[in-house]
Structures are given as structure tokens and as C-alpha cells.
Amino acid sequence: MPMPFSAPRLPWNAAISPRRTVGYGSARMADLKIVGAAFGATFNQVVLAAVTQTLRSYLEAHGGVPDAPLVAAVPISLRSANDPDYGNRISAFLVHLPVHLADPLEQLLAVRDGAVSARHVHTRLGVGALGEWAEFTSSKLLAGAARIYSELGLAERHRPLHNLVISNVRGPASPLHIAGAALAAVYPLGPLMDGAGMNITVASYVESVAFGIIACARSVPHVSDIALGFGAAVADLRKLALEKSETPSVHG
Fold first, then answer.
1. Strand, coil or helix: what is 73?
2. pLDDT in tens, 177-191
3. Rounded Cα–Cα distance for residues 164 and 125 (Å)
């Protein structure tokens, strides 16, 4: 699992401005499942690989690709199926996004292996204790600390804790209706924080996967390039998966 403060600095890893920019993209859920089945990856790992490919393309056009992987914070739920309590119980673990690799398949395999290791370390460390500590910490204290951190511009005085947050939310598997009208799509948006001026949230809905990005408008121009690149990245991975399935195996 990546260590905190080991991420390379990117344009959006600084103090954020009040202005926001958003973009949306989508892909077919069936395509992500085809990729996962072909290469032994989970749905979440395919999502992270598609994000990796998209961010590499964006960085090539805007400032250059770092020679080290990015670090993403991935929120996870700590709630079990038998948990009787209400409210949010959320932790997060860090994963590498290997943007320094040019080949989409190499990216996917690196994400797959790295995410498995990160999840294993996260489980052994019992990082859920951090979420339990936060539940008993005064919200006023946390808000005050965040305000001071922002006012002093501390995000620009140290290496980024991580480069961005990537959330994957499981949405309804059946169509929803509002006053008789069918809900066509769901596009999610998440929060930003100083030092990590980009948030990518992915949500499934029926047979589609929606990709929502929100970022600091000052440090992330042309955010639509990232959002629209998600579908193209999934298409590239699907093509590789189909080529793999059509290749005859050789038995000795």
C-alpha cells in the first residue's frame, strides 16, 4: 500500500479556489465485466485502470506525466451486513494509479495486483479505528482545523497526502421513476479538499456506469477531457479482453 505523502505533486495538489468545474462520462457495465472476467480483475479494479488511462492521457496534454504512479484515496464502507447501527462508517485505503505505464493492459495488471495488496494491508492494520476515532471527535474542532489549514495555505508546504479521491458507489439495479418519468441516468459528484483538488466518483445504475468528476477550476482546465476519456478507456480495455478470448491457447 502506498505511504501517505508519497504522491507526486500535480497542478491540483495545492490550495483550492472557490470555483468548481465538473464533467460527466459513462460506459456500459457489461464492458467492465467483460474486462474483469478476461484478466481476473474486480469491477473496482477495472474502474481504477480506466481512470489511470484517462488521467495519463490528460496529463500528457496538460503538463506532462510524472515518472511515478499517482496515489488515490479510495473510500470503503466498514459496515457489515449484520451491523444494526445507523449512520456512515467509512474508512479509506491508498492505491497506486500507474500513469507512468503507457500500455493499458500493463496498467490494469499493475492496478489489480496493487489494489489487492493495499486492501490486505488495510485489513491487517485495522484502519477502521481511524473512523471510530473521528466519530468521537468534535465536528467544530475538525471544521476549525480545516479552516486554519486552508487559511495558512499549508497544502502547498508539504508533499500531497494523496493526489485525488476516487469513490465507487453501487446504485440501483432496477430503473427508478419520478412522477411516472423514468430516471435516465445518475451522475455523481464528491467533495474536494485542500491539497486534493480533484474528486472522481463512479456510480452504477441499471446497465450503465456513470463517471462524475469535480475539480478546482483554477488548477484543472478542460475537465471534460478527463470525463469523456473514461468511456474511451473502457472501450480500449474491452478490445484487449475480446482479443484475449479469441486467441487460441497452446497446450504442450
1. strand
2. 989 999 998 899 998
3. 22
